[in-house]
User: What shape does this take?
Amino acid sequence: MSKVSLTRAVRFKRIQVSRHLRDKMNSAWMLFTMVIVVVMPLILLIGLYLKSAMLLNQHSIFHLLFSKEWKPLSGEFGFFPFIVSSVWVTVVALLISAPVCLLTSIHLTQYAKKWVLSIMHPVIDMLAGIPSVIFGVWGILVIVPAIGNYVAPFFGKTVSGYSILAGAIVLSIMIIPFILNILIEIFKTIPVELSEASLSLGASKWQTIKFVLVKKAFPGIVSAFGLGMSRAFGETIAVLMVVGNVTQIPTGVFQPGYPLPALIANNYGEMLSVPLYDSALMLAALILFVVVLVFNFASRLLIVRYERHF
Amino acid sequence: MDRLKKIEEGFFRVLMFCSTVLIAITLFLIIFSILYKGLPSISWEMISQVPKGGFYFGKEGGILNAIVGSLYLSFGSTFLAAIFGLPLALFMNVHLIRHKKLVNGIRYVLDLLWGVPSIVYGAFGFAIMVYLGIRASLLAGIITVTLFIIPIMVRSIDEVLKPVPRGLLEASLSLGSTRSETSYRVFFKQTLPGIITAVMLSFGRAIGDAASILFTAGYTDYIPTSLHQQTATLPLSIFFQLSSPIPEVQQRAYASALVLIFIILVISILSRLLTRKYQRNQINF
Assistant: This one.
């Protein structure tokens, strides 16, 4: 009898030890994953910098950013045309999607009935889930011919349709679900009491939205647009497919452009055969990374501050 | 004055309604135009064969290499990302429950990483590849895509774990379970439906992304048999076929796009079904 209980005690002890050992191992692995993820941005930054250092040693960063000459074969790497194209595409895309997102988010959070929401939620989710290459295909099928055949002639221009505008339209649709989701969250966090107070003072529903909700949510709205912009800035394949990819400084929306991500994606094939070319493309990735990081950093900070407000 | 206000409100209400409808219409327009172009050119041959000689001049063959390659790549990277992502998300919500500031800091970093464009991950993956001396391969592609989807997966799982009541944690710990047992046996089970959705979301991202694998996974006409071989992927096969000047090949790009949309749809439906199935194991509060 005593022998049985002894082995039981031993077994229990063993199980305890193995349980705690397993707990330690699991926790150690968890800690490890945390460390990896936290230092990840730093690793990305250092990795890209080391690869682009070769080019940075030869030319000053200022020269590289503002030079218009892009002749890899003779060692001239000026990023200015690509940066300008990127800015064009991003800004036009935001100009298109910002009003649509703002209006829709107000509609969905303030006016819409239950059934509208039950349709729009899956719609937004699906739009967010569509791969970017599909947007590109759709852009080539619909947007590019539409611009070439109808929009540009309307403004008295004859173009192929592969243009900044085509890229911006495709981009604007891609960032709509992204911005919309943030805006909906932001409008939801505003306490109901605030609009109730406004309504009880005799303001109409629209006045309440205009003077209370939007005003209160303003920092959140700005940061949502900032996040949308940084998303648009880095989008590659869809834009690459419709934007034309001509190395020039675009001066209008109907001209073709050549944004930074497209530059990286298009030239990976030959980058190892031309000296410094790979370094230049890595620098392009680094510029992209830093710009997106700064935009994200600022926008997120604004959102965190804003949420703490309530 | 009052009438003017009414008109203003009415005007904006119409505008808001229109923009909502516009978004819905755009989605259907996208799906419709891909269906319209892709359906006529899709065939059993397309999805059951690898490219044969002269495929890129409009001759026989299919895109089985891209379909299988994409599935390999996404399964591999989702699996790897889960090995890193699930423990981290649990760690943030169980072990670090009393360190709110630290957890919020990690969330911030994850959100930053989520915002990094996939082409940057692609370039970084390429830099690592050159540094280690590996050639473009399935393995390099998997690693790059894993880096890309880890933040997505962790943040999605984190959002699922956040609302779990603290009482569950306290009850589990007070019964004598260790913290990792609480994580995997209690929290994991409790939130399994949400975790499945999060993993499926990451899978969808992995299979749809083209920019990160452009440098790292390569492209080949064969189905890879080892991790060190190059692999074709659906987004890239669509991209390459569409840039061909031959109409037959372009037709195939539309059909390939249809296949990709179909896979994405299947994933989202599957995640909904699985969510419902595992909801039964949940404790309701």
